[in-house]
Design a protein that fits this description.
This protein is of the alpha+beta class and 152 residues long. The protein has 5 helices and 6 strands. The chain is elongated, with a radius of gyration of 20 Å.
Length: 152
């Protein structure tokens, strides 16, 4: 099955990734993560809104609604687009809530100018995601099983 997308009368195939490939491959390969402030992100969203061929324009209303809960914003490149744009995933931390994510088209120079994530911030991000992993319930037969002897 071919997945199609397009704008302005042009149709393209969505890129396909094999089971051993990461979709986030752009200038440096996997592992490129940038961090951005809320003010800088809003400026990038405003620029994407003014850019004629930018289809992914962030979530300005969502950001405004959650303004008091916003934490860090991480930008991960997904694919190169036409017109010197790259499609990125923006991961926004919300204080005391799960993280939200959405897409944003950025000029490749704007993306390159963003600061890289620091090792400490990367560890914080990893722990935040690890903490949101879904709990696997105990098997039913184990749930009703009582040990014959108490633990020492």
């Amino acid at each position: 099955m071919k997945l199609l997308f397009g704008w302005g009368g042009r149709v393209r195939l969505w890129p396909r990734f094999g089971p051993d490939q990461l979709p986030f491959l752009f200038d440096g390969g996997p592992g490129v993560i940038k961090i951005v402030s809320t003010d800088a992100l809003e400026a990038l969203i405003a620029k994407a809104t003014r850019t004629p061929y930018a289809g992914a324009r962030g979530r300005p209303e969502w950001l405004d609604y959650h303004r008091n809960e916003l934490g860090n914003h991480y930008v991960v490149p997904m694919t190169r687009q036409a017109y010197n744009l790259c499609r990125c995933v923006v991961i926004t931390e919300l204080r005391d809530r799960p993280t939200g994510f959405y897409s944003l088209d950025l000029n490749q120079r704007d993306f390159a100018a963003l600061p890289d994530i620091s090792p400490t911030q990367l560890v914080d991000l990893a722990h935040r995601y690890l903490a949101t992993a879904e709990h696997v319930p105990v098997d039913e037969h184990e749930w009703n099983h009582l040990p014959d002897q108490p633990h020492p």
